[in-house]
């Protein structure tokens, strides 16, 4: 169902304080579903190429929705359906170029319709697109095929004549302290890219991912149960990214894929726990931004962000402050149990101090944006009262001032925007 969405004042305040809770996450997810439905409607109306394919996809999707509305809503609300819908819409509006023929991109709707038909237990026969000799159906995976691909749906199964065996997406799951989570580890979907490094190909094994995921979940469920509850409510997909060098771990969230993010293989449970919190903060804020404007999209002011080397617009600074406030909160909760937590907490808390002070000095925030920033300030002020070893605090301050000075030299500015 497409309808206007918003969050309640209490949900807004909870999000501003860095959390939100499962009910708020579910409200944001419902808004994403409506967004996806609107984009799919636009695609179906604007796609003027292969009309027979479009009409068959729309007809199949309509029958599937009528037969199993909840199951199909889960599919249409999924992150990588959102990523496809956003990319395809941009192409149809002339704002994005790609090597894939536009008709093939639009006809991914047929693959989505095939998945919906299987979930709903209805029969269908659809011509689905082939991406470089590979056919992808959301939830079912990837298969190799030369030539035209016709998907037949019957008895809850999707078959493609002449195709190889499906390479299905894997799952990661964990349970600790009565809290459970299950997510897709997607190394096959054609719309899993868009991060600052490419996604991996098919993983030979996911045993290492599962082991560290279970450890990270135990850490969160034990020491940050409210974070765990949010993740269980809203995190749906992890996308393995290529390790481009041997020293740096990477992760990134794409705004159009709510509840999904990409990451390189984590080496430690603590690292993964921090990454889960970090990236899900971005998903939450992106979901909120789809229903509430927090800054002026036409603003040209740029800011120093302690975690970046490039000047950031106010929207980027807002994302960074929110994500790092969540990281600081997690390190705070891990102070008694993780050896490096005091040092990490001191550094991240100082980064949030600088970013938040700069954000408060911005003239580009809306009234809602100012309220959101005030909510973050209240949380930070409580953190600022925590006793951390003075030498760690001084070291964090020196490091950040050095980073800021280097940033000024790099960008040839003497500005000290809201320097604490």
TrEMBL record:
It comes from the Bacteria. NCBIfam families: mod_HExxH. This is HEXXH motif domain-containing protein. It comes from Paractinoplanes deccanensis. The lineage of its organism: Bacteria, Bacillati, Actinomycetota, Actinomycetes, Micromonosporales.
